[in-house]
Amino acid sequence: MKNLQTCILLLCFFSFTVYAQKDSIEVVVAKNVEIDSSGIDPKAQQAYNDGTIAFENKNYEKAITDFKKAIEIAPDFVQAHNNLAYTYLANKEQNLAEQQFKHIVNINDTLHRSYFELGTMVELKDSLELAIEYYSKAIERHQEDKQYFYQRGIQYFKLENYDKAIEDFYEVVLLDPNFADVYNDRGSAYKLKGDSEKAIVDYKNATKLNENFVLAYNNLGSVYREQKKYDLAIKAYDKAITIDKDYYIALNNRGYAKFEKEAYDEALLDLRKVTELKPNYAIAYNNIAGVYMEMEEYDKVVFYSTTAIDKDKNMGAAYYNRAIANEMLRNEVQACQDWDRAADLGVKIAEKYLTTNSCGDLIQE
Fold this sequence. Notes:
By secondary structure, the chain is mostly helical.
């Protein structure tokens, strides 16, 4: 078996705490105000107050009507425009909310929060560059809000611009040194840059600030595993699983670390536990097949690879593992068919076997 490469899958989770729109919307509340110092027409102010009360009662249609009335009377009444935008959000009218926030910044270009909200909305559409542009405008106008830097950093991360992401996450740390999530996310950026030591420092900081941060423990374990420090990796995964016994991701990854440590029986215990928690989780069945491959129990490799394929028809690694097992069992036609399918699904090494084992003729037969 040492001349064949088993496909076993590690699942890494990089966590982002995204500031998405919430059901509870922050609005300016102004009750029982007949006229304010800004000189807003009293009728507009009254309509605004009525809209605010309607919003608090979750009567969004009435709130929209009242805020529109206030705006009709006083077109530059920014608070009314702002509350109208948030009411559209609460009423799940994203497009109208986006249009309203754009109108607000046209009225007053200094309103940084509106740029932030625009960023969150276009982010939901996967318009990452535009989201960065909006977040940057929010930051230019107000540099004291960690959310602005944090959300921009996340977009840079998604675009694989890890240096820029790290810069923004660094700014977040300056603004809030006790924000555990940003240490985890900066650790992930360092990890993907190949700077394992800085990643470890950040993941550890995240877990110091939040002792129940299971994702950070999982990510820490994965860095140690890449360094082949399997005992430290397993210890980190242990911590995640102690906090959340049903955390199948850490269980899968701990099984992977034990597999690489060649503790195959222990790896199987973890991976079987994953299948109990997530019966349709194809990766775990494929990984069990990978462990049995190293144990040279090829009938079991075929069984578990087939189970993985039943759960996920597009799992190339499972076809590849089954192909190797069938080759060892002298089921050459089945092996070639699986290598062909694995190659179609992007498993590059499968192409080698297609060309070296006369598979073309066997598949045609």
